[in-house]
Design brief:
The protein is 0% helix and 51% strand. The protein is globular, with a radius of gyration of 16 Å. The strands form 2 sheets. Strands 1, 2, 3, 4, 6, 11, 12, 13 and 15 form a 9-stranded antiparallel beta sheet that branches. It has a 6-stranded antiparallel beta sheet with strand order 5-14-7-8-9-10, with no helix packed on it. The protein starts with 29 loop residues before the first strand and ends with a strand. The chain is an all-beta fold and 216 residues long. The protein has no helices and 15 strands.
Amino acid sequence: MKKTLKTTAGILMCCLVLLAVPASGLCNTLLYEDDFSDPASGWPRGENEEIGKLDYTDGKYAVRTNKPWPSMVFGNPEIILNDIDLEVTATQVVAPANNNNAYGVLCRYTEYEKPFSAYAFLVSGDGYWSILKIADKKIEALMYWAFSSAIRQGNDTNVLRVIASGTSLHFSVNGVYLGGVTDYRLLYGDIALVSISYEDKPVEVHFDDLKIYSPY
């Protein structure tokens, strides 16, 4: 595990722009869903050999990064939400041999300040997780990288659940609650699906069965 944070002014982000917690069950109002079976459902698509790729692949949404951190690649559907209870499956299909990477969900993503602001809920192929705040041209670890046996390592599938309700942020993986924090900085915005490599090797993750409910 060799995760790092960059807190200097200006996040050198190569975003690919191409063309107590409620019980599980997600029984509240459905706000948005996508099983990525329809390539016209509105997510960005495109490929850049140097940076990475966003595309629909075999009924899933593929997010590939070809450059190491601080580059990241993510796709967002351009929807504005504030309070969410989100669940998505994420399958790592390409990663460095040591699984030193990260992938997951951005929420409350906005571009009102450059390059962007968001909360990042991340897992890694070697079994770690973190909650980051990207805002004010810096990155802050709200929950620093910690190991969890609930995270399936390597090229496997994890079910990620993110709850953002008011100032409360919570993260679960495969039905296991990992942790939560309180933060007042970001209150609404888009969601995005992201992949990151901490090595000079690509990372590709396939996302599927995205559902977003109201958390109350």
